[in-house]
């Protein structure tokens, strides 16, 4: 506990008269209050376990069942059909001696009521799981809902009428099904057909057929066996083999970033922005711990989504290993780690069991900003170890950070709730070059200086000198929607609920007796400093090669796209593929066909019938069995030159975007997946804007993020012009866009 480090609860001295004991009542009181907070959390966890354990029923429903059974018995009827009498016969002998016959009957009735209640809970949970396994609603046309789906929606609403906790649905979610191998292979061949010549497609078809008739069915049986006991037969292998076993740098290659508001900076005071941001994040953590957050649902429906990724959001670090990394998670942490101008600090965020106020956190952050002490030898660029290759970092960590002062300081970072960088630069869409500044803002969040972030933490917050903020998230523990949910809550709580005074400071009072933030102490030998330089060189080369371009597309948004009766996601995805066609009727027809196909494919993926995860797991099984498959080897080695992702916004609706249009979030982005490809993240904001984050590598002469951004904008407008009779694209625009589209495709 923080207070135990800041004050001595008691002291004693030995005198000729005996032992002189001196108690510090203030310190003891702080320890007591911290203990009370800890016990409150334990009681809350126990309470939540009980509530989750009986969902979709409620604990109080036991009382209704018991009263109903007792009332029926009072009416001289036996609702148990003889079971209560049998239970009474098997009661312990001590109860037969101490209780009358009527008392024994009462106890037996209560035992029967409890067993009946538990049976009803299991039945309700089974029914809910069956209801959530229904997928036909995804494939019905908008406005043409079948009677079956209407009944299904009513039943799901009925079963979900109680206010669920964050994890209430976890035991009721259906297992991820293993799709038939024949269907997966058929969909794979269909997806690659446009990319292959006739001889290449025939060869791939022969490989697929040979795989299906020989090794494929054997591997499939192992997957079905795993799916019987695992709720998700993909997730653990995906986490380990796609993320944790990668030995290349996670900076740029794996980590992703999230941005601040586009037009608004709530305060220009760096310490104040940090104070409110820390408070908002810890309030979110409190909601996660108490399970007070509403379970996320499929947008526009009552279908709950898995919330397992929230469990490792805070107090989590990816620790390096020689063969594979490991995710370490701690139940709680009362401090955060802070980096500023080459120094690391531990900042306690609780005092005497209470969370510090935003104003107190601002006060503590300002103390760090005002600290002029220089970095210790080797301290300033120590974070570069987390940005470089994983094996050298694992070796350094094992040899030089396993004991002593380095171990204690590393623990302070790894066990922290999260990591904060107080950046000495200014960022955001500002100045005479707002577009260029947005690109530099993205690069800063993606990799920074390559040593001023701790890329192993589950997420790191960056607070810039001008009050702008952002985050960098490690990817293995969660996908972007989970982090986006956290960041959306943080931004909204910061700006609309906590707020600032007129001069830009946090609200609240300050206890000026707060202990100073604790400087972390290091003893960095020359061998570690040499490896820091090597890791920094690797990371710097990777960072310099990244080309980022961020731009808000304001010509139209999902509102106008929906008027064309097309899914906004399908519109964005397919418009890039068809932009180079100039036969308008052909393009319009093909676009609608392709959009419907795209929607059908992502619906299939949502129901567990996707292609890549299934083939990936078959490949993992083949490796475990020590067998080779030419088909799987070729499929898994195919490059993904265009990687796209849509990040959801307004998941929580904490403020009205229509009435606060300036508080639009830019969303976030990620690095390119292939050296000769693009990474494209897009965020559909409100009805009239789409934000794009494009990344590529300077080292590839065929890619250019800014040029591709122009092409995206042109492609969207071209397709809208085809679908909307009142919108036309100028001939000069078409002439400029056409060669770029052909070159890309």
From TrEMBL:
Cellular component, GO annotation: mitochondrial outer membrane
InterPro entries membership: Carn_acyl_trans (IPR000542), CAT-like_dom_sf (IPR023213), Cho/carn_acyl_trans (IPR039551), Cho/carn_acyl_trans_2 (IPR042231), CPT_N (IPR032476)
GO MF terms held by the record: carnitine O-palmitoyltransferase activity
Catalyses which reaction(s): (R)-carnitine + hexadecanoyl-CoA = O-hexadecanoyl-(R)-carnitine + CoA
Keyword set includes Oxidoreductase: no
Domain Choline/carnitine acyltransferase intervals: 176-585
List of catalytic residues: 475
Principal subcellular localisation of the protein: mitochondrion
Keyword presence, Secreted: no
Coiled coil: none
Organism from which the protein derives: Amphiprion ocellaris
Lineage: Eukaryota, Metazoa, Chordata, Craniata, Vertebrata
Name recorded for this polypeptide: carnitine O-palmitoyltransferase
Enzyme class: transferase
Record EC number: 2.3.1.21
